[in-house]
Design brief:
The structure is a single chain. This protein has ten helices and 15 strands. By secondary structure, it is an alpha/beta fold. Helix 4 crosses helix 5. The chain is globular, with a radius of gyration of 19 Å.
């Protein structure tokens, strides 16, 4: 029995070998949110997976939101939280809470979980070193632009500080807050932020953790998950997607059209989903690839484009 169990583990390790070789030294940007962030046992497994990636020779970067935590804190303070066209109306009072929760609470929690394994994670905000620059975003209701406060669209990424941390063997953990040219602080969508950063770093993968198994082929009539589709195929599907999936799939589309070879939507409720995607032959979730995708090519790890301009839609989760 012991020999059988050991052999099974050895088989798993051997299956991972070509993927370990392919992605050694490659940057992987992971958008972290949903139940994977709020359930304790999944939080711990996520931290384990990220540290495993680091020891396996990959360079993980975490970008996180914190919608549930923001909602809870606003409720405790008696601050009304409203949404327009799926976007949080962010008054200056609400923005103070958003900033405090994302930077001061959620970011520190993620950093702390990872650093139980060693001195790896360093937290930062999208404001730090002008990482994310944003402009004010407006909601569109019945064709009319509506002011929703300090909600931003990312228009520029300066990723030099993140790259310096990666070069030093650290794991950057980035909260989805951005600054404007005039110093205004904006709440930005974490899916959008992760895609923008993946493009700027010329990452090998963007991984978006969510609360569904992937992109369903014909929801709600069927729960069949599309395992792979091209950028053009995804573009054609976008108008018919549910509002919750749109920012995630738009992020994947922007990433692959910006030069990232692969973008994935995974179920963060499944333990070790990240490892299953990267290190197994079958993979999990939905993978988006460029229209001209052939074999996976890890980008040149020396010559990187550290500034990117990107514009997407989305809320704050």
């Amino acid at each position: 029995m012991r020999t059988s169990d050991a052999l099974s583990k050895a088989t798993t390790l051997i299956e991972a070998l070509p993927w370990l070789a392919r992605f050694h030294g490659a940057t992987v940007v992971i958008k972290y949110g949903g139940n994977a962030m709020t359930e304790e046992h999944l939080r711990e497994k996520f931290a384990d997976d990220v540290v495993f990636l680091r020891y396996a020779g990959l360079k993980p970067v975490i970008v996180h939101g914190g919608g549930p935590q923001i909602n809870a804190h606003l409720d405790r303070l008696g601050i009304e939280s409203t949404f327009t066209a799926g976007l949080r109306v962010t008054t200056p009072e609400a923005m103070q809470v958003v900033r405090m929760v994302l930077v001061g609470q959620v970011n520190r929690d993620v950093v702390g979980l990872i650093n139980r394994h060693g001195p790896f994670a360093i937290g930062m905000s999208g404001e730090d070193a002008h990482l994310f620059t944003a402009v004010r975003k407006h909601a569109v209701v019945e064709g009319e632009r509506v002011d929703i406060g300090q909600v931003g669209d990312i228009v520029r990424v300066e990723a030099g500080a993140v790259q310096a941390l990666l070069d030093d063997g650290r794991i950057p953990v980035v909260s989805s807050v951005a600054r404007g040219e005039d110093g205004t602080v904006y709440n930005v969508n974490a899916d959008t932020a992760a895609a923008a950063l993946a493009v700027a770093l010329q990452a090998s993968k963007l991984v978006v953790l969510t609360d569904v198994e992937g992109l369903y082929r014909n929801w709600p009539e069927s729960d069949e998950v599309i395992d792979r589709l091209t950028a053009t195929e995804l573009d054609e599907l976008l108008p018919g997607l549910s509002s919750g999936m749109v920012p995630k799939m738009e992020a994947c589309l922007a990433a692959v059209r910006g030069g990232v070879p692969q973008a994935h939507v995974l179920d963060g409720r499944a333990p070790h989903a990240i490892l299953l995607e990267i290190f197994t032959d079958q993979g999990v979730g939905t993978m988006v690839v460029p229209d001209t995708a052939g074999a996976v090519v890890v980008p040149n790890l020396v010559k990187r484009r550290l500034t990117a301009t990107i514009r997407l839609n989305g809320s704050d989760t």
